[in-house]
Amino acid sequence: MAIERTLSIIKPDATRRNLTGKINAKFEDAGLRIVAQKRIHLTKAQAGKFYEVHAARGPGIEHDDGLVLVDTGLGNKGSDKFRAVYGVENTGRQGPTQLEDALAEAGFTPDDVQWVINTHLHFDHAGGNTFQEPADAGSGRREGRSRSPALSFPNATYVVQQGELEFATHTNERTAASYLEHNIRPVGAAGRWRLVSGETELLPGIRLVPTPGHVPHHQSVVVADGGERACFLADLVPTFLTNCRTHARSLRAAAAAGDLAAAASVGHKLAGSGTRYGFERVSDLGHEIERSAKVGDARAVGDLAQQLEDYLARVRAVSG
Ligand SMILES: [Zn+2]
After folding, report:
1. By the 8 A CB rule, do 178 and 167 touch?
2. Taking burial as the number of CB atoms within 10 A of a residue's CB, which of 107, 178, 248, 298 is the most buried?
3. Average pLDDT in the chain
């Protein structure tokens, strides 16, 4: 099958800003282009503030075999409480979520999707596998009556590592919050899973590569087109929030050692990257930390460091 002309990445969003320089350089040395996750703006309803999380939508790939989607984002099935806690706002202008909007912009409908590859089944990656119609939508339905979720992509085969499906459906206290049945079960009930084990060439030019770590059976997607290769890493590598956690640790160490110059420098970094990545809260805290450190207020630096850690803990569940 000739893939040279027909295989292309829609809006590859090949920004590298989510990734650390060192990791990027490594992949570039290996001749791989990194396709970063798209980010969706989310509203944090409780605080009335905006922040972004990595609502892990991957690229769409046009292929001779049909349209291939990598990960489906957060979906629309979160309860009001879920939305409030995680600050989720993923409603689409036309379709159920912003993913359908992005498809429409690229000239596709959900019916066009032939393959959905799930890198793993955490709710911020597989939440858009299925969707819930509003209870009062359609005719002849009683208002308030909830329906079971339907497949977002009715013609698609959904692909995941077999080990990940087992991991996701046999949860424990630590993993249960990340794997939500309504994202997973309807796919099985419709008989739409294609389970793979290990490295697999799913379609000519599209290879699934196990990349364990984040979860035991996480997979990344390598797309080859002519001489070019792109790799969608999903949650394999540290992203912005992971780096923030590292900064938070340095800050704690600096505060404990009374090294306010080091704290000021960490605050400065946080302020800059918070702005760059659209995390206002991180940016605000960074500025305050830098300011307090410069005037020698160690106690304020300690308090702010704690606030940063609390914030990071709150967004952790949706950031992978
Ligand atoms: Zn994850």
Report:
1. no
2. 248
3. 75
Per the listing, tokens 């999903």 go with: 234
The predicted-structure confidence for 115-173, as pLDDT tens digits, reads as follows 999 999 988 789 899 998 766 554 444 444 457 899 999 999 999 999 999 999 999 98
Cα-to-chain-centroid distance, residue 270: 21
Instruction: Strand 200-203: give its sheet, edge to edge.
Output: 33-35, 228-232, 219-225, 206-210, 200-203
Distance, CA of 232 to CA of 244 (rounded, Å): 22
| Sign of CA pseudo-dihedral 271, 275, 276, 281 | positive
* 3 state SS of 196: strand
Q: Hey, is 293 helix, strand or coil?
A: helix
Residue 203 pairs in a beta bridge with 206
pLDDT at 178: 87
Q: How far is the CA of 319 from the centre of ligand 1 (A)?
A: 7
185 Cα: distance to centroid of ligand 1 (angstroms): 18
- Kindly calculate the radius of gyration of the chain based on its CA atoms and give it in whole angstroms: 21
Between the CA of 316 and the centroid of ligand 1 the distance, in Å, is 10
CB within 8 Å of 106: residues ≥ 6 apart: 10, 11, 60
Residue 22 confidence (pLDDT) above 90: no
Q: What is the pLDDT of residue 70?
A: 85
